[in-house]
Amino acid sequence: MNLRELYVKRRGQFWGEILPYLGYVIQSGVAVVFLFLLIAFAAWYTALLQQVPPDLPIRWIMLIILVPLMINSSIRTYLRTADTVFLIPQESRMKEYFRMAWFSGVVYKIIGLALVQLILWPLYIRSDVSPKWLLATFAVLVVFKLLSSYGSWKEQLMVSKNAAAAYRALRWIVTALSLAAWLWHPAGRALIFMTLLGLTYIAALSVPVKHRVAWERLIAVEQRQASRVMMVLSWFVNVPQREQRVHARKWLSGWGKGLAWNKASAYRFLLIKSLTRSDILGILIRVGLLGAFLVWATRDTLASAMVYLISVMIIGLQLSALRKLHPESFWLHVYPLPQGTRRDNEGKLIFQVQLFWAVLLWLPLIPEALSAPGRILGTMAAGVVLVFLFRSTAARKSRREEDDE
Amino acid sequence: MSEQPVLSVQGLSGGYSINRPVLHDITFQVEPGEMVGLIGLNGAGKSTTMKHILGLMNPQKGNIQVQGKNRAQHSEAYHSALAFVPESPLLYEEMTVREHLEFTARSYGVSREDYETRSAQLSKMFRMEEKMDSLSTHLSKGMRQKVMIMCAFVARPSLYIIDEPFLGLDPLGIRSLLDFMLELKASGASVLLSSHILSTIENYCDRFIVLHRGSIIAQGTLKDIQEQAGKPGMSLEELFNVLIQDGNGE
Fold first, then answer.
1. Is residue B63 in a domain?
2. In what order do the strands lie in the sheet with B190-194?
3. Domain of residue A96, residue span
């Protein structure tokens, strides 16, 4: 069996499934909004470069933006459940297969990293008192990106999940310390520190016990990554959903207990449980917290309204994925749910959660309410209007789909 | 019997393609308080028959009624009257065992008090008390199957459609299931059960329907089938072999 060919074939199959949807993504209004946001960002960034604020904490900005990009080392293996039977005989040769996966994952991420570095660079050289050289910084980023990818791969092979989690934390620390050393200290001293730290990290990676191929974990990770691609596509177009990662989130297990005990709210109960334990909620929390922070940081300017509305919009888009979680659910065909309750429950829950976030994101603006009441109340009103717009658009789409059926 | 049958299947023909029906003119009934075994080889049409009853497939010909109601006109009442246990567990990965039972109870309109009583009884009977708050992803296959059975039993409809329930269950689980089915039967519920463990269901089912290549080749009590096959005193397993060989023209 040619494992390299198998990898290329599987990668082709997956992207062959995705590409037909890209046309719809480009045609959709949301894509236009993103393009508009990109243009708005370009305009804002150009203005910022022309008048860079004094004392801009540029090293911290570089660190906060670049470290997550250096850490992100997801690798698409395209492994399938049946591989635990049919590919196990090839286990000793699987390095060929994974080498392909590793390289194609790393190359794209390095290109992305270079792009972000190039965007940040004009701001960096204008703000830093003693900026480093462009190519040397790129080399540092690439070396630690490769080291992070190597570390991430080794983490996936570790037998103990706790050890893998500890090594993930170590990877964050090593990457952040190395980049910080490069940004804050003279190049020579920083390089010595980074080399010693990198070598110690590589030596530490050899300690934990590892599988030759961690089949089940790699398959679970692959399923998660494929479902994320589908989830992003589902913002724009109807796509078949794949299994999502499930998070226990015991602290939220009480949500849904207070629902009215009747058939009409049974589907709402299921939706609440799905939302509670899905990736969607994690993204909502991250977007919400980041949005709230940015709204607070820009609270004395009109930009806060823009950030606020964009955050409410992203939350609405994320929540729309909830509609795609159970379209073909077996039990929803078999159980005696009253007609129409699925659509009603979906619409109502999504509306309420989006409205909740719209209010929450607005709270950081309250300190400005006395000095600029019109702007602050207007922002809130625009947010509420946006939430209602999301609801009416979704309801219209849902009715149209029902008519088509 | 003068009572209305719980399930009535009349002249059912159907399948995945109009030109190639899998089921041919299937007719049978399940009476209140009756346990009927649906038996046949792999691919005989047992699961397809069940899918038609559940409304997952539409008949090409014929009519299916549950408690005198058909699905097209009385969808909610039709589905309220039946519960299904599939051959392979189909669970929501994001829900715990307890939440599956609660979702089922809510969907069937079971009162909160009844749900709590039944859920406690079932978790004890199937030795799942310690797993009630576990996510379904953390359960073994046998435990997942137990959840499916518990969900069907928490609803307490008048008809249970049960497809290969013994797969993956441990011996104690099989015993609990059979005992509970007898209890339900005694309370007036009906069961349509498909299984390949003929020696077990021989002692539990009142009647049997033998499907072969999408057609019923025999049905009735064990005695009726013995008479139809001309083999008095034979066990269900032996009779089944004889009928299938005759059906194959061997």
1. no
2. B82-85, B159-163, B190-194, B35-40, B207-212, B215-220
3. 3-223
Residue A65 vs residues A70, A187, A284: alpha-carbon distances, Å: 9, 21, 20
Whether residue A314 contacts residue A355, with contact meaning beta carbons closer than 8 Å, is answered with no
pLDDT of residue A404: 67
Size of interface A-B (CB pairs under 8 A): 73
Kindly report the nearest CA distance between residue A317 and chain B, in angstroms: 21
Residue B199 lies inside a defined structural domain of this protein: no
The tens digit of pLDDT for each residue in B202-218 reads 999 999 999 999 999 99
Residue type, B217: I
The owner of tokens 């990736």 is: A279
Helix A58-71 and helix A161-184, axial crossing angle in degrees, nearest 10: 150
Confidence of residue B20 (pLDDT cuts 50, 70, 90): confident
Q: What pLDDT does A322 receive? A: 87
Quick one: closest CA in A to B111, which residue? A261
B114 within domain boundaries = yes
Number of domains, chain A: 2
The residue written with tokens 């972000």 in the block is: A116
A303 and A154 within one domain: no
- SS3 of residue B197 by DSSP: coil
Chain A residue with Cα closest to B76: A336
Q: Return the pLDDT at A238.
A: 67
**Residue A259: closest C-alpha in chain B:** B106
pLDDT on residue B54: 93
Helix-strand-coil split of chain B, %, nearest 5: 40, 25, 35
The two three-digit tokens of residue B47, written as one number? 């699961």
Q: Which residue of B has its CA nearest to A328?
A: B56
- To the nearest whole Å, the CA of A285 is away from the closest chain B CA by 18
- Asked if A246 and B56 come within 8 Å (Cβ–Cβ), the reply is no
The parent domain of residue B115 ranges over 97-156
Number of domains in chain B: 1
Q: Which amino acid is at A112?
A: G
Residues A278 and A314 in one domain: yes
ipTM of the complex: 0.89
Residue A232 belongs to a domain? no
Rounded mean pLDDT of chain B? Answer: 91
Same domain, A62 and A152: yes
Residue among A265, A278, A337 whose CB faces B94 most closely:
A278
From the list B54, B76, B86, the residue facing A338 with the nearest CB is: B76
DSSP A74-119: -------TTHHHHTGGGGGGHHHHHHHHHHHHHHHHHHHHHHHHHH
CB-based contact (8 Å) between B109 and chain A?
yes
Pairwise CA distance, residues A70 & A194, whole Å: 15
B127 vs chain A: nearest CA distance in angstroms? 23
Q: Report the amino acid identity of residue B70.
A: N
Are A49 and A126 in contact by the 8 Å Cβ rule? The answer is yes
